[in-house]
Amino acid sequence: MLNVSLEGGGAAIVNNGANVSLSQTSGLTGGWQVDQGGSLTATTSDQLGTTDMLLNGTLNLNDIALFDHVLTGNGTLNVAKNNASTAFDFGTAVGGAFSGIVNLQNTTFDIDGANTSALTNASLKLSSGSFASVADGVQNIGTLALNGGILLFNNLIDNSGIITSVGTVAANSINTTGGGTVQVNLPTNVVPSLDGLSVMELDEGEIIVTLATGAATGTGHELTLMDQNGSPINAIFYQNISNPGGSSAAAIGSFNYGMTTGNGYDGLYVNYGLTALELLSSGNDALVLTATLANNGTQANDLSSQVSGSGDLAFVSANDGSTASLSNSTNSYTGATWVRSGHLRLDADSALGQTSLLAMSTATQVDLNGTEQTVGELATETGSTLDFNSGKLTVTGGGQVDGALSGGGELALTGGVLSITQGNNGFTGSTDIASGATAHLYQVQGLGNGTINNNGILNLDNTRGILSNALTGSSGIVQLANNANIQLSGNNSGYSGLFSSDAGTVLTANSAQNLGDSRIANSGELILDTASVWDLTNSISGSGTLVKRGSGTVKIEGSVVSASLTTIEDGLLQLGSAAATSTVTLEEAPLARSLSVTLASGIANLASNVLITATGSLGGYGKVTGNVENNGNLMMPNALTGGDFGTFTIDGNYTGNNGTVVFNTILAGDSSTTDRLLITGNTAGESFVTVNNIGGNGAHTAEGIKIIDVGGDSAGQFTLNGRAVAGAYEYFLYQGGVSSPTDGDWYLRSEVEERRPEAASYTANLAAANSMFVSRLADRAGETLYTDVFTGEQKTTSLWLRNEGSHNRSRDDSGELKTQDNRYVMQLGGDVAQWSHNAQDLWRVGVMAGYANSSSSSVAQGTGYRSTGSVDGYSVGMYGTWFADGQENTGAYVDSWLQYSWFNNQVNGQDLAAEKYDSKGFTASIESGYTFKVGENTMKNATYFIQPKAQVTWMGVKADDHKEANGTHISGEGDGNIQTRLGVKAFMSGYSEQDKGKDRVFQPFVETNWIHNTKDFGTTLDNVTVKQDGAANIAELKVGVEGQLNKKVNLWGNVGQQLGDKGYSDTAVVLGVKYNF
């Protein structure tokens, strides 16, 4: 509250958001400005002073009789008096520039003189408690809006039956939607003629007098008509109404005076017309209402009168878009509604009353227009359209819909059977099917694509296609009948009712949300087609079939699913996902071969015969109560989930049709932890068994590891698919236990030490990696010197290349494993420096690099299993050599080298995954010998030598520790081996007579060696070591030739044969070339 007096010539501004109440007299002369969003309240005129008012916000005049200020702006002026009988007026100073709203409440106002001038551009709003009287003459104002107030026209005159009002209002616009009262002094002797008018025209009636003109919003029926004294004008006249050409009354009409905005919504009028209809006739004699295209959008096509009675109502208009409408919300007629031609629009809730039938003929249209209607039956012909247009239609008695449903809104079925014969893609509204009601669909999109809340029956009769609607409801039934084939695609998470399918029908679901929390009573075919993981919690029962399709997984928990046959076409059907509740109680008869099985509550149980196709899989921790035919994969618990080990139970017969049963087992002794298959009935056919070792180290078994328990006739054959290996042990599948060979069960046993051939392959790889780059002095350079032609100095500077191929045979220390190994080595090197300390000796240093590969094949003689090994890698190194006599090539020599090697290794076991790993390390050697000249034959140009020698080689190439795919830990043995060699070489150096003077020298030789290895190469598989045998002591014989072709090129070659114990042998061929610079 502003408790000060404003004075002076400045402007007073009420800003946006300010709320100012005046309490003091003001001498303000500079003007008031009330901005949009601001509010100013005055209770006496002198609080506003004598200044102008710019009003774009709100001005509240409380109990002020006169406002005489220049008024401009477009805001709101609220006038309220303490006594409704006291008047409010505008003074002449106000002018006519104000274009806002004058809202009168609880006050009296004359539309005349200065008041009319003030409203020239403004809107007069007559709110509750206001009373405005219209003076004689035409009163021009901006807008006339009735909002609960009273408007008085008190000077109506009768001139020979023509009624006019001396005082009228001419407004730019009129609004009657807020309701209110119009009082007139209507002459009592007015009797208008209604002859020749149709029913729709009767409803509009005869205009008695014009009270106001202007574009109108509202029908005028919202207003109450009273006389000048405030008494209702409610004299009712009754008249029979017949159809054109009819002789009997189709209805009784009630006529009265009322208000209207005219057929063209162009003013405010008093009319005399139809206010109520009581329908009398039915069927072909029903009361006919006709609209015309020309009157579309006007009151001439609308029936606003109240309709009651038990007769029928028929709409017959041209099928040219002519639209009739009903707009009375108190209609209560119970007869049928026939839309025989044209369009019908419903403009009020309950405009169809309590009609027992809404029947639509071909080419007709009914527009709910956002309203709510209730009908008994609904019958629409092909070619008709029921447009919900955001409205709601309740059908209590069913019917048949052959026409189209369109638009959004709601269809509510509360009783009866509503048959819908065509698809309605244009209907986007929801459908509610109450208990006791049935929606009978012949097309899958009969109810469009909106939500269906089903607590009754949704019957899909010979319907085929995708049901995309979202289903909700808790007590409904979705019924498939007469060969229906339905695929669910909607999100039905809110549906907990029943799906019921008859024999010959197909129901397909792709995910858990398609079935929601529903139950399925399946007498047809239920297809679960998914590419993802689906936890199936729905109860499925009935005599039908269940099909698992798609690459995904369907998981079943508990005893919720039964069928006559379950076919797993693709993907996985998993029974149970954990072993925590997988307690199985077995009772075995002492004589008969049978088992009875009791599973703890909560175990997943599929009560069905099961067919596993070639691309399907079944498994888990649960139970099948029925027979199983396996063409695909039957996965045991841990093999499927990687979780706990457990038992899968078939409480019936098992037939293998080249299917596979997969187990995970910690392969060790008899008490090994393993998955298990329990079959209470008989077995037949042929099946494969895959056993995956999960970290077992292997061990000898006695009775064996039972993996298949058969209660009936064990005629089926189970064959191990691939190999079951752990550490160094091979396991085989046997029928019958050692102590009970006729028990029919199947066991894994490692009865004798059947060594794995892979052990030999790992060993061969390690031996090759350590030995392939081992060389001798003669392998690198030969023994021939040459004399420089310019200086006469003997030199050995060179670039050399050697190639060696060898074939090795060996066995392991048990004699069980036999290995053959082919190796190839290529080394390239050259001297980088040479010198002499005394002009007699010779020192030289060089570098070398090489590539080598090895390919081995091993076989276990007991099992016949094979494996292959391969090694390929490189080396770099350096060498150094000293000759005591570099001139005569006699006397002592010392040779040494050091090199680093690295290799890629691979072992491929039969029916096992390929294993790849690396190896790397250093090797080093020192060799020494002494060359004796033992003779000379000058006639033959030949000199003879003996060369005893010794070599020590350290082998330090080590393979990386490796874990096989089956869990076996692999480590190499034997690295760090020291190999010693003692031998003697006899050779001749000479040339033929024809080569004399051509720098051509040849040295044929023969050499024998004894080779000793301090360690055997081997492999440890978990805790079992398998070693190569027979290589501890090796005898070698080597023959060859070394020669100089000319002073630039040296060649050498030899063949060596090594023989050891236990069948060890190695045959090698060496070819070398040296180019002298």
From TrEMBL:
<dbReference type="InterPro" id="IPR011050">
    <property type="entry name" value="Pectin_lyase_fold/virulence"/>
</dbReference>
<dbReference type="InterPro" id="IPR043990">
    <property type="entry name" value="AC_1"/>
</dbReference>
<feature type="domain" description="Autotransporter">
    <location>
        <begin position="792"/>
        <end position="1077"/>
    </location>
</feature>
<dbReference type="InterPro" id="IPR012332">
    <property type="entry name" value="Autotransporter_pectin_lyase_C"/>
</dbReference>
<dbReference type="GO" id="GO:0019867">
    <property type="term" value="C:outer membrane"/>
</dbReference>
<dbReference type="InterPro" id="IPR005546">
    <property type="entry name" value="Autotransporte_beta"/>
</dbReference>
<dbReference type="Pfam" id="PF18883">
    <property type="entry name" value="AC_1"/>
</dbReference>
<dbReference type="InterPro" id="IPR050909">
    <property type="entry name" value="Bact_Autotransporter_VF"/>
</dbReference>
<dbReference type="InterPro" id="IPR036709">
    <property type="entry name" value="Autotransporte_beta_dom_sf"/>
</dbReference>
<dbReference type="InterPro" id="IPR006315">
    <property type="entry name" value="OM_autotransptr_brl_dom"/>
</dbReference>
<dbReference type="Pfam" id="PF03797">
    <property type="entry name" value="Autotransporter"/>
</dbReference>
<protein>
    <submittedName>
        <fullName>Autotransporter protein</fullName>
    </submittedName>
</protein>
